[in-house]
Amino acid sequence: MYIRWMSVSIVMACMATPAWAAPITATDKIVNAFMDLDSNHSDGVSQGEYRAMVEQRMNVRFKEMDANRNGEVSAEEYREFWLSKKAQWYRLER
Ligand SMILES: [Ca+2]
Ligand SMILES: [Ca+2]
User: Fold this and answer.
1) Cα(51) to centroid of ligand 1, in Å?
2) Ligand 1 center from residue 37 Cα (angstroms)
3) How many domains does the chain have?
4) Is 45 in contact with 54 (CB distance < 8 Å)?
5) Residue 86 confidence class, pLDDT cut points 50, 70, 90
6) Ligand nearest to the CA of 44
7) Ligand nearest to the CA of 53
8) Which residue range forms the structural domain that includes residue 42?
9) Residue 68 in 3-state DSSP?
10) Residue 91 — pLDDT band, cuts 50, 70, 90?
């Protein structure tokens, strides 16, 4: 009888799980990562906050492409960049 009561109690506890304890989905993680862009904590991502992320990624990408750091990406630099990244992007190789 005690074990049965314990089982019922556990089931009821699981059913009464509050919303804040709901499992985090993959979409939740993506939304949370997006909201990390909200640098002024306004509960929204402004165009400026979004632009800052895009520019930061662009700067990283440009540095990867501009191997000799002369401020321009030559055809050869882009070829090397493409060859080094295409497998990763298109999962052709591991
Ligand atoms: Ca904001
Ligand atoms: Ca260059």
Assistant:
1) 12
2) 7
3) 1
4) no
5) confident
6) 1
7) 1
8) 24-90
9) coil
10) confident
Written as one letter, the residue type at 13 is A
Q: Using the mean position of ligand 1's atoms as its centre, give its distance from the Cα of residue 60 in Å.
A: 23
* Radius of gyration of the CA atoms of the chain, in A: 24
Tell me the pLDDT tens digit for each residue of 52-80: 999 999 999 999 999 999 999 999 999 99
CA of 91 to the centre of ligand 2 (A): 27
Is residue 18 domain-resident? Answer: no
The CATH number linked to 53 is 1.10.238
Give me the torsion for CA of 58, 60, 66, 68, rounded to 10°: 150
User: Is 0.90 topped by the overall pTM?
Assistant: no
